Amino acid sequence: MDERPTLEDIRRAPKVLLHDHLDGGLRPATIVELARESGYDGLPTTDPDSLGTWFAEMSNSGSLERYLETFSHTVGVMQTREALARVAYEAAEDLARDGVVYAEVRYAPELHTREGLTLEQVVEAVLEGFEKGGRDHGVKVGTLVTAMRHQARSMEIAELAVRYRDAGVVGFDIAGAEAGYPPTRHLDAFEYLQRENAHFTIHAGEAFGLPSIWQAIQWCGADRLGHGVRIIDDIAVADGQKPKLGRLAAYVRDKRIPLEMCPTSNIQTGAAKSIAEHPIGLLRSLNFRVTVNTDNRLMSGTSLSEEFHKLVEAFGYGWDDLRWFTVNAMKSSFLDFSERLELINGVIKPGFEQLKWRGSRPVA
């Protein structure tokens, strides 16, 4: 029989990450160094270990709004071309060390212009860092440019996504607090992207409920849902009975709309109570197009391998389940279709098969 995958073995598995924020994955030591170089004096501590602990503790408030406040420090030190390129390079290196073979990392260009950089310079610096980091460490990284849902620059950012889509930008996203800022506020940007045959995902169904998901899909035409945890509110579960899907949940499943779920982060922001109670368990059993992600590796003190391992411990998942999540992610990526197939058939499936058989033991 197959043994449960260990964290060490999961790190060796070829993984795919679709929802990871660049400004949520910095190394604490890098934040301290960049703050010193730039003159940024707002850090709560300049000791890297203590700073890492501070980020983790501040992110466990159970409030999305307080969780987002921690980004003031990471964004604060990411205001030069050199800083952006360095952070992107190190992100590629860290992902590769965790066994990630393909990642889509998102960031909001408009947050990095305080010291005079143009939106274009921000995008080019990030692309430069990921290109070099990916080449040096053997991981392919596509970027998503993100518009902040409480601002009014989504059309500018959407145009950036189209302008740089042949240079490494694979899609568009909107992020930020959901309540009071529905995705329909940015309908012109989504309609533009659709006319340009461009890909986009929308943060929806995390801190807000089914209306956010419904608008993201039916009004805006999202290819994927960032988080989408609250789709569980449209599924009725009664003891001894088969779960009954509402119209929206059935549509999401039938249309194979990918859900970019981030278990640890969802708990920190109050979207889920615990890993064991996370909707991902039910949604996986109902065969929704679920993917597993990190969201913000620094704030959550996590990695993709650790997210998988938490699910193994909570739900008893084996290698077949982890491969299922990974193939889902690769199928749902914004990468060219032929490249997706190449990674699925040439890297992911063989890699998981090797780990599965290595972890098997003869039955007595």
Automatic annotation (TrEMBL):
Chain sites annotated for binding Zn(2+): 19, 21, 203, 295
Annotated Adenosine deaminase domain residues: 14-349
Active site: 206 (proton donor)
Cofactor note: Binds 1 zinc ion per subunit.
CDD domains given in the database record: ADA (cd01320)
GO CC annotations on file: cytosol
Protein name, as recorded: Adenosine deaminase
Organism of this sequence: Actinomadura namibiensis
Gene encoding the protein: add
